[in-house]
Amino acid sequence: MKKNVFRSYNFSAGPAMLPIEVLEEAHEEFFDFSGTGMSVMELSHRSEIFLELAQKAELMLRKILNIPDHYKVLFLQGGSSLQFSQVPMNLLRGKNTADYVHTGLWSGNAINAAKKFCNVKIACSSESLGFNCIPKPTNWILNPDAAYLHYTENETVHGVQFSTTPTSSVPLVCDACSSLLSKPINVAKHGLIYASAQKNIGLAGVTIVIVDKELLGASLDITPDILDYTDLARAGSMLNTPATFSWYLTGLMLKWIDRFGGIENIHKINKEKAKLLYNTIDNSDYFYVNNVEREFRSINNIPFVLANASLEKEFLQQADQAGFKGLKGHSSVGGIRASIYNAVTFSAVEALADFMKYFQKING
Questions:
Q1: Cis peptide leading into residue 68 (ω within 30°)
Q2: Tens digits of per-residue pLDDT, 18-50?
Q3: Which SS3 state, helix, strand or coil, does residue 120 take?
Q4: What is the Cα 104 distance to its own chain's centre?
Q5: Reported pTM
Q6: pLDDT, tens digit, for every residue of 209-256?
Q7: Contact 216, 209 (CB under 8 A)
Q8: Contact, 263 vs 64, CB < 8 A?
Q9: Cα–Cα distance between 102 and 104 in angstroms, integer?
Q10: Phi, psi (deg, nearest 5) at residue 235
Q11: By the 8 A CB rule, do 53 and 41 touch?
């Protein structure tokens, strides 16, 4: 890939932007991976060279997130949406209830999926507030006999993010789909963490599951082998043919994050990008509006609207013409959304902020 190739400003919520360095490395190895004379897409997942690739990806993930030894790391398929069902299939462990925190569209989808397998108790919900915050933990209603407590760390649609990790007396399950590897997370406080790769981690097709070994071995009888964490862990995530190219790209992304200075440096820059964009919104004299309470504003997904809604279509059209892609808000809420995942550079966010100021000057 040529260094001067044209690249749009990609603010898509997913599949998301990939770093140019990662794309260049994949391009260089595309036809001949590690001297095999084959593309990595053509390698057998049972071959020694692919097994080594897979092991290196896991070791790098363990290093970056400081994953304790008593956790299994799985590289699965099906996206986070499959995890909405796979989690209760595997973690009920003879119990019939699970607690869920309802903070937006995706936690709502997880709740609806889990209802097919157990009695779901809503520990708290911000739906009546338009999903603009995380309810105070002192107001949560928790069941000490629940199989687990599930929360969505970052809601991509509503732009709401937890500022601290919830405290739980039962295993804590985290949907970290849009935030894993964008900020530190204390794995040891969780029973299970899951995230699909097409946000901060790599290419669509891989879903990472990090699970405490103590929670394995008690899946529902109806659970197919291919969805049983225990069987998948025993087979090294390869009960069937995995998404080999996506797994490979995930490995490249993990190496890029490590070279970039690891999770702490990634988080620092992500906060700076978010601060710049929120400041642009907040200093616009309500030309642009973000309704999320400041404590819970996402550093990954920043939704906003124009106070004059009739200008939104023109904003999106002009933004697209200027090279800013993927800014249209989710269909369930409309508006505008800028997703500023790991690969989105600070300069790209600066360019978007400048465009927003220009658009306001012309139309304000």
A1: no
A2: 999 999 999 999 998 888 988 988 888 989 999
A3: strand
A4: 14
A5: 0.95
A6: 999 999 999 999 999 999 999 999 999 999 999 999 999 999 999 999
A7: no
A8: yes
A9: 6
A10: -95, 10
A11: no
